[in-house]
Amino acid sequence: MKPFLLGFPPTIENSALLPTETTYKMVGDNTGNLAFCHAISQALGVELNSILWHAPAPQIDSMGDIGVITMANQLGPHADLGWAAKPLQDVKCKLVGIGLGAQAGNSQEELEIPEGTLDWIRNIQERAPGSHPNIAMRGEFSQRALERYGLADRTVVLGCPTLFISPEKRLGKTIAARFNENPLPSNVAITAGHQLWTHLSTLENSLVKIASSTGGAYICQSPLEMVMLGRGEASLLSIESRNACRNYIAPYMSDDEFVRWSIRHAHSFFSASAWMEYLRRFDFVIGTRIHGVMLALQVGVPAVCLAHDSRTVELCQTMLVPYVRAQDIASRLTRDTLPSLFNFDPDLFDQNRIKLAKAYVSFLQNNKLIPAPYLKHLTE
User: Fold this and answer.
1) Where are the alpha helices (DSSP H) in the chain?
2) Which of helix, strand or coil describes residue 217?
3) What are residue 228's phi and psi, to 5 degrees?
4) How far is 80 from 117, CA to CA, in rounded Å?
5) In 3D, which of 10, 88, 72 has the Cα closest to residue 44?
6) Cα gap 262→236, rounded to integer Å
7) What is the DSSP secondary structure assignment for residue 130, as one 8-state letter?
8) Going by C-beta distance under 8 Å and a sequence separation of 6 or more, which residues neighbour residue 146?
9) Domain Polysaccharide pyruvyl transferase, which positions (predicted)?
10) pTM for the full model?
11) Do residues 223 and 29 touch, judged by C-beta distance below 8 A?
């Protein structure tokens, strides 16, 4: 059976020739989606064609036999996916969803899920390739959010597919060895946040100073203004937008200094492979973006996620990714304090990764998808 992605492509071809607004829309308003889609394509061992959710049913059916839906933090009152449920009523192909998660301030909340989103989930589950669960959840909190609606039985917890990009069985040991070689990082990359997360601005300021002092990088995923910074387009932003970014990132800089700083340190990527290739040069990666952290870990670079909501906490706990709750950091971070944040057990990480890989392989096979040989090798 021929699979295809019902979502975004893993790479934006010829992105350098396209306006930032265009490329940004093509990745679903967050370049982190590229990491997710790349991971799914790699796990299936093929370059998957892709089509967006809102395409007419005949076009979706023409793509192949099984649509693999790239999901995100879509459970909660913030997202009503009734508009996405309607096209699926008429599709004839089978459907498999990967990466569905809940969005909440904390993992104790009981989430209200709009009826439109529940219909979307039901339509996907009704089109399972077989009798097994066909939706992979990010964690137990997300799965519990569906229990009250009677929709959890057709789901399985797998974390994020980015955990399985690397074919290395003992990835945790590689990461730990890299950290032990250089416990005081001399070259640090930051996974940039969002300029409207003003409650995190003090933390972001300290991270930026670390990146600047180590000749490091500031890697932007969203929103559009931040991605423009990463493409060297700070001077194209309105003064209001540029000031919002500057106040969040480095309020002590003048406007001219900030523009020059962004050209030197800020980066945006429209290819997960190029992103990972770039991350290989760093000693340490830290920040609030889980996908930027995951890509660093996959190339053996020590990384810490500064978790600021239930979504990132859930993913880190499911996959045993090193993390610290952002609200628990009482003071500004410095380069000297970074090693204390890297709470990492390589053996537990590897054991958990192999366990989740086995569940992932079973999930794919049960849904008539063929896992790539390297992924099966991880389970042996």
Assistant:
1) 20-26, 32-44, 57-62, 82-88, 115-126, 140-147, 171-181, 201-213, 224-230, 239-249, 255-265, 272-279, 290-298, 310-319, 338-341, 346-366, 373-378
2) strand
3) -65, -40
4) 5
5) 10
6) 12
7) S
8) 75, 113, 121, 137, 152, 155
9) 127-310
10) 0.96
11) yes
Percentage helix, strand, coil for the chain under 3-state DSSP, each rounded to 5: 50, 15, 40
Domains along the chain with CATH numbers: 3-164+353-378 (no CATH), 171-344 (3.40.50)
pLDDT tens, per residue, the chain with 380 residues: 899 999 988 899 999 999 999 999 999 999 999 999 999 999 999 889 999 988 999 999 999 999 999 999 999 999 999 999 988 999 999 999 999 999 887 666 688 999 999 999 999 999 999 999 999 999 999 999 999 999 999 999 999 999 999 999 999 999 999 999 988 999 999 999 999 999 999 999 999 999 999 999 999 999 999 999 999 999 999 999 999 999 999 999 999 999 999 999 999 999 999 999 999 999 999 999 999 999 999 999 999 999 998 889 999 999 999 999 998 986 789 999 999 999 999 999 999 999 999 999 999 999 999 999 999 999 98
Q: Give the Cα separation of 127 and 262 in Å (integer).
A: 47
Contact, 282 vs 252, CB < 8 A? no
Q: Which amino acid is at 355?
A: K
Angstrom CA distances, 109 to 145, 158, 255, stand at 9, 21, 41
Question: Residue 338's closest CA among 217, 244, 206, 230?
Answer: 206
- How far apart CA 88 and CA 94 sit, in angstroms, is 10
